[in-house]
Backbone:
């Protein structure tokens, strides 16, 4: 769930809310409420300025004293901030340089200052030591984390799981417009069991035809290409008693049985039914 919304999301939501088909009175009420709140804020601001003016005129000494106290507070805050910044960077005033001169280190009048290491550098240096110790313990002593070789193995396993998931879903993404003949024979082999369980009663165990037409010759009633067969199996031929198998079989299973029917062409089973329909010439 998103927690942060961009300005565009907020404006789009407000626009959709105000321009929706809801009660028009609600929209008028919201606009009036927003305008009233803006007027109220402006009135409060003007009253505050007026009270300040009255206080400045009526009690000038107290007003000046308040201004001085506020200025002192701001100055003290600035000094504290500068002191923290100087301490972080290891800076010193020019008046303090004489305390930093290295003794017995004077060459031709040239002296050097013994500047201490800045606090930020020490913090960074010691943090790298702590990080290094933590890394060493986590990855090489207690094995809480995965090294590069282990990460590679895990990523390969995840990729294989994603590939298998895609392949399992891709089989059911096929339809009559995208199906093609499987040249490897894998789909046809898988479709044989489906054909035997669901189609053999009408078309014969070898596709020779009984109640339904012969599927082994080159004559077809509804087209003999793989897409035609897929479409016929999927939507059926209710007028001739063939039910739509899309209600029983998945698209992947229809693709398998369609490839099996294609593989029956010219198989010449015993006692084939007479050809029906139009002869299809294959290249």
Residues:
């Amino acid at each position: 769930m998103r927690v942060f919304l961009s300005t565009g999301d907020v404006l789009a939501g407000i626009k959709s809310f105000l321009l929706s088909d809801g009660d028009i009175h609600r929209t008028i009420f919201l606009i009036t409420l927003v305008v009233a709140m803006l007027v109220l804020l402006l009135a409060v601001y003007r009253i505050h300025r007026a009270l300040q003016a009255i206080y400045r005129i009526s009690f000038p000494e107290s007003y000046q004293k308040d201004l001085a106290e506020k200025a002192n507070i701001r100055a003290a805050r600035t000094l504290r901030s500068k002191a923290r910044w100087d301490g972080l960077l290891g800076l010193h005033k020019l008046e303090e340089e004489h305390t930093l001169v290295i003794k017995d280190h004077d060459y031709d009048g040239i002296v050097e200052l013994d500047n201490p290491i800045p606090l930020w550098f020490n913090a960074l240096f010691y943090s790298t030591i702590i990080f290094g110790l933590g890394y060493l313990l986590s990855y090489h002593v207690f094995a809480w984390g995965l090294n590069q070789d282990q990460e590679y193995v895990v990523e390969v396993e995840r990729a294989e799981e994603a590939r298998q998931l895609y392949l399992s879903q891709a089989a059911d993404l096929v339809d009559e417009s995208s199906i093609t003949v499987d040249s490897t024979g894998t789909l046809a082999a898988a479709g044989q069991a489906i054909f035997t369980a669901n189609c053999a009663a009408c078309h014969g165990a070898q596709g020779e035809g009984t109640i339904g037409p012969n599927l082994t010759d080159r004559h077809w009633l509804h087209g003999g290409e793989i897409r035609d067969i897929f479409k016929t199996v999927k939507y059926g031929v209710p007028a001739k008693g063939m039910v739509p198998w899309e209600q029983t079989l998945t698209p992947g299973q229809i693709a398998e049985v369609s490839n099996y029917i294609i593989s029956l062409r010219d198989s010449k089973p015993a006692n084939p039914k007479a050809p029906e329909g139009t002869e299809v010439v294959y290249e």
Summary: The first strand starts at residue 219 and ends at 220.
